[in-house]
Amino acid sequence: YGRTLSHTNCLKNKSSWVNRLSPKMREQFSKSHALLHICFLEHALLNRDTSEFAPFLRVMPSSLGHLPLLTTLNLTELLAGSPLLIDINKHKRDLEERYNQIVWEHAEFGRLVTLEDFMYTYCSVESHSHARHDEDETVPLMVPLVDLVNHRSRKPSLRLGKLGDKGTADEVAVHMNHNA
Fold this sequence. Notes:
Elements: E1 2-3, E2 5-6, H1 7-11, H2 17-20, H3 23-29, H4 34-47, H5 54-58, H6 75-78, H7 83-105, H8 107-112, H9 115-128, E3 130-134, E4 137-142, E5 158-161, E6 171-176
Antiparallel strand pairs: 1-6, 2-4, 3-4, 5-6
Helix pairs in contact: 4-9
């Protein structure tokens, strides 16, 4: 059993940044990992050592500079002529727009979180999150330390699943695949 970080954790806390977003913005962000990103950002940057997820957050990489959205390499030179460069630049602009949208609605957010922090936490979520599929619902989540247990590309030895019949969206069990 492992408690997972999902936007449902933050929705339970009435003072969380996820709850401070307007209903329209929450609805818009719920269609992707964006709410999980805001929840992770709050735990990683604002709550830090007081977060219930502090032990997990301490083992997250301190740099993700190897990722295209965060690299200091000259991507224009490296990817000249590649459609990938266009996609990366569009993705950066979209994230800057999302950040500015939140800051426009909540100036305090801009005083607490820099665009650089916003981009780093976004990349952390995108590179370390999973999804729990339960009937017609998909819940993006971060499972502490799950990255350490399953590095087989063929016949994975573990899978994420429900915690019995009573499992909720923020609880998960890691099950052994006996056929691996």
